Every structure is written in C-alpha cells, then in structure tokens.
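User: Hi! I have a protein structure encoded as tokens and I'd like to know what sequence might fold into it. I'm fairly new to this, so please keep things simple.
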C-alpha cells in the first residue's frame, strides 16, 4: 500500500468516525421513545386487570385509535418534509418528547371511579394523543434529522447500529426494574400512576438531550436549490417507489406479530411468577454485543439479508417458546433467541428509510424521509393495533377472565399460541416480503451516481 493510499484510508476512517459522546447524546431521544413504547406493552394488562375493562373492548379501542392515525401520520411527515427553520428540518420536532411522557403518565392515571364509558374515553384520548401526535412526529423527524446531522452512510450506520446498544441497555434496565416495581407498587390504580410518573420525569429530561446538543449541519444535494416539497409529490412516491411500499408492509406485518404480545399474561398464568419477569430480562444483556456487528453485517449482507438472518433466528426462538410451557429456564432461552433475532430489523430499520431516500433521489423523486418515517410509523402502529385487537378478541374467545387467579385450559393454550406459533408465522411472512427489496443490490450504483451529481452541482456553483 502506497503512502497516498494509507493517507486516504486514514482520512476515510476519520470521516466515518463517531465519538462516544455523540452516540450517547443522539440515542438519548431514541432510548426515551423506546422505553415509552415498552411501557405501552403493559397498557392492556392495566386496562383489563386494574380498570377491569374487557380485553375485546380494550383491543377495539386501540384499533379505532388508528383511524385518527391514518390522517396524522401522513400530515406529520409532510409537515416535517416542508419545514425550514434556523434549527433545521427535523430537529424542532424533538419538542414532542415533553408531551409524549405527559400523555404516557396520564394514560396510566385513569380514575377508577369513572364509569366504563368514561374510562374508555380517557384511555382512548390519552392513547391517541400519545401515538397519533407525539410518537408520529418523533417518527417523522428521526431520519430527516439524522441524515442532516451526520454526513455519510457509514456515520449514520454506526449511529443507528452502535447506538442501539444504549437503547437496548436502557430497555434491559427497564425490563428488569419495571415488572418488579409493578408487582410491589402497581397493585392498584394509584400505585400505577405514581410509578409511571416517577419514570416519566427522568426520561423526559434524557429524551430532550438530543435537541439541545446535536445540530443539523448537512443538506442533501437535491435540496440545495431550496425547492419545497409539495403534496403532489406524495403520489409519485407511492406509485414509482416500490421500496417504500415494501418497507411499510414489512413494518405492518412485523408489528402485528409484536402486537400479539402476551408476555405479561405468560409470566402471570403459565410461569406463575410475574415478579420474575423483570429478573429474567437481565438475560437480554447477552444480545447487546450483537449491535457491534450490525454495521459490518449491513455492509456484507445488506439490510434485507441481515434482517432475514435475524428473523430465522427469532423463529427458532418462537418455536422453542411453544414447547417451553411452564419451564422458566427453557422459556428464558427461547425468549433470548427471539430478542437476538429481532435486533437487526428493529435497531437498523431507520437505515431502510435512509437508503430508500437515496433511491428516491436517484430516481428523480423527492427524498421525503419525513413522509416515509410517517408512513412506516403508521404501518407499524396499525399493525400493532391490529395485533392487539386480535389478541383481545382471541383471549376473550378463549375464556380469559381479567383478574382471575386461575384461567381455564383454553385460555392458557391461547396465551401459549399467541406467544409462539402466531408470531412465528407472521415473521416468516416478513422474510418473504423482504425478498422483493432490491435497493441493497442497487446501492453501489446509487451512491456513485449521487456523488457524481453532487460534484457536478458543486462545480456549477463555483463557476
């Protein structure tokens, strides 16, 4: 290797480097949002066992909530794509972090003295505001903010991949501490409200660190002429950009699988020890090192290939879950495989959006990261709600009775199926959908052509 080549490689490594401080600050927001999402995993249990609402009714409320989402998601993405402020394009919308945690606390603070109808209105309004407004804008701005804060794909990949370690660590701590605290403090409605309030305050502060410390510095070539995104640009995006539809469908089906989540019910009625749920979550620390491999795996296999490998690992875990029954050790090992398999798709999904934005620009379309963030966010939330709806209906049909000490055999079997066979089948569908994603193969040509356009634009501006 010549001296010039060594110098070029050194400069390249320097350009791709991301400091630990930036990793932490950037992912503070993602970690906070992730923990609010984990908190929602307990809302069905809260509604059925604390507020004494029927599972089918709860599932229906969440499903209906997505009707409003279908409007706010598209509008939010379009608003972000049109934004031009001195703070940047995506950065200003981090302010919704404040309202996210306020609405989360209120969601778990419904007065038990309310009649059933009033409880339904309260839960519906808080859940809808949290998802349809707060999470929607935080989804819509995320990739828009990232591609303007970090210059190249290598930096972005490290921010998402390595940064996911901190998000996973935060989730692990939450999964350890929250169930234990819930078993001790969340024994009634007042306890739930206090517990969620104590969590919401520090996570609001943590979530606001990114907006205060990470500026937007870079502008994509296609936006340097100051041309605005218009509503008419949405139709060509949906008609001509097949990858957009593919990643939306992936998110939809994946979240149906996760929306079926019956983990709390499994620990309560099959394992028979809800308090051990948090202790068992400590094992998720074993999957943390996988995050270090994500940028390298992405380079070697592409986003789709890497995700499919993870899905297959997760499916082994789901299959093992069905046969685990009440064996806690067997169940923990199975859950560990499921968690490991979910890492590539969950932690690197924003790179799908960033890559497809480059694809859109390459095809002469608007990048529209914000709109894509909203579309995939909407797809995921509809999938989660549909999964929750199915779970509620199937649990009710199986004879499940909220708050009962012992459940009938049919309810026990339904919990086992919803924790294993059903998500396994759905994740295999996701793997099949990803076979039609071709952007990974086209990316070298896309990168070359966009760099040539950037050079031509710079040269023309200099003249």
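Assistant: Happy to help. Inverse folding works backwards from shape to sequence: for each of the 463 positions I chose a residue that suits the local structure. Here it is:
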């Amino acid at each position: 290797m010549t001296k010039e080549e060594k110098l070029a490689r050194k400069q390249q490594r320097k350009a791709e480097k991301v400091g630990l401080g930036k990793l932490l600050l950037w992912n503070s927001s993602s970690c906070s949002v992730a923990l609010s999402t984990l908190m929602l995993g307990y809302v069905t249990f809260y509604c059925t066992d604390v507020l004494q609402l029927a599972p089918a009714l709860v599932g229906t409320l969440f499903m209906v909530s997505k009707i409003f989402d279908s409007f706010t998601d598209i509008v939010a993405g379009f608003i972000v794509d049109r934004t031009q402020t001195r703070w940047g394009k995506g950065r200003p919308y981090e302010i919704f972090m404040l309202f996210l945690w306020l609405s989360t606390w209120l969601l778990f603070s419904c007065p038990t003295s309310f009649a059933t109808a009033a409880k339904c209105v309260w839960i519906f309004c808080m859940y809808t505001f949290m998802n349809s407004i707060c999470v929607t804008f935080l989804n819509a701005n995320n990739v828009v903010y990232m591609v303007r804060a970090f210059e190249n794909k290598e930096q972005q990949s490290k921010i998402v991949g390595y940064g996911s370690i901190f998000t996973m660590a935060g989730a692990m701590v939450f999964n350890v501490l929250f169930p234990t605290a819930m078993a001790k403090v969340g024994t009634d409605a007042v306890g739930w409200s206090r517990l969620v309030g104590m969590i919401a305050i520090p996570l609001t502060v943590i979530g606001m660190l990114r907006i205060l410390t990470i500026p937007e510095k870079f502008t994509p070539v296609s936006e340097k002429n100051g041309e605005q995104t218009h509503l008419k640009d949405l139709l060509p995006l949906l008609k001509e950009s097949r990858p957009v539809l593919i990643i939306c469908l992936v998110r939809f089906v994946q979240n149906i699988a996760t929306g079926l989540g019956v983990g709390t019910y499994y620990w309560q009625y099959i394992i028979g020890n809800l308090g051990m749920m948090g202790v068992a979550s400590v094992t998720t620390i074993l999957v943390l090192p996988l995050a270090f491999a994500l940028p390298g795996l992405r380079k070697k296999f592409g986003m789709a290939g890497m995700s499919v490998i993870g899905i297959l690992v997760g499916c082994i875990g789901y299959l093992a879950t069905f046969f685990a029954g009440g064996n806690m050790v067997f169940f923990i090992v199975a859950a560990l495989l499921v968690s490991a398999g979910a890492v590539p798709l969950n932690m690197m999904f924003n790179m799908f959006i960033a890559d497809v934005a480059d694809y859109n620009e390459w095809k002469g379309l608007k990048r529209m990261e914000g709109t894509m963030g909203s579309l995939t966010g909407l797809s995921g939330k509809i999938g989660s709600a549909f999964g929750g709806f199915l779970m509620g209906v199937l649990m009710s049909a199986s004879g499940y009775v909220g708050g009962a000490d012992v459940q009938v055999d049919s309810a026990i079997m339904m919990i086992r199926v919803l924790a294993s066979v059903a998500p396994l089948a759905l994740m295999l569908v996701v793997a099949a959908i990803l076979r039609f994603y071709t952007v990974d193969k086209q990316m070298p040509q896309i990168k070359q052509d966009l760099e040539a356009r950037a050079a031509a634009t710079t040269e023309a501006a200099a003249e």
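A useful reference point when you look it over: The mean pLDDT is 85. Feel free to ask if any position seems puzzling.
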